[in-house]
Amino acid sequence: MGPLMEELPTPATCAGCGAFVPAHAAYCSQCGRPMHPTDAPAGRKPKWYYNQWLILFLLTPVALGPFALPLLWKSPRFTPAAKLVLTLLTLVWTAAFVWYVMAKAVPAIQNEMRGLQSIYQF
Ligand SMILES: [Zn+2]
Questions:
Q1: How many A from CA of 9 to the centre of ligand 1?
Q2: Does 115 map to a domain?
Q3: Tens digit of each residue's pLDDT, the chain (122 residues)
Q4: What is the 23 CA–ligand 1 centroid distance (Å)?
Q5: Which of 2, 69, 111, 118 is 20 to 30 Å from the Cα of 44, by its Cα?
Q6: Which residues of 70-88 are buried (b: 16+ CB within 10 A; e: fewer)?
Q7: Are 57 and 24 found together in one domain?
Q8: Ligand 1 centroid to residue 20 C-alpha, Å
Q9: What is the CA(36)–ligand 1 centre distance, in A?
Q10: Beta-bridge partners for 21
């Protein structure tokens, strides 16, 4: 068509509801979703590493265990009571894990030493 059409602002499509929104609009008139999410103030959303499921996984014996406790206490996703309970649970399983390893490993090492002694006759 003519230059008149090209001068019209291109309507944007809302990513939330699909409604056509004027290009200059900051928010969708239909659902209120911000049209320019990068313009939203930073720091509103908690950091991804404060995700409660990630932290719960990191507290387990196969992950970081007690080393994930600082992350737990900094996370805004847990209540103080939940932090206290999870800390106690982490300390209990850590103690149990250390005890289990010691109970298994120490006799195994002693056994190994006896085996070496019999071979090399210290
Ligand atoms: Zn919308």
A1: 18
A2: yes
A3: 555 545 555 667 888 898 888 878 888 888 988 877 664 555 566 678 888 899 999 998 778 888 999 999 998 889 999 999 999 999 999 899 889 888 998 889 888 888 888 877 65
A4: 13
A5: 69
A6: ebbeebeebeeeebeebee
A7: no
A8: 8
A9: 12
A10: 12
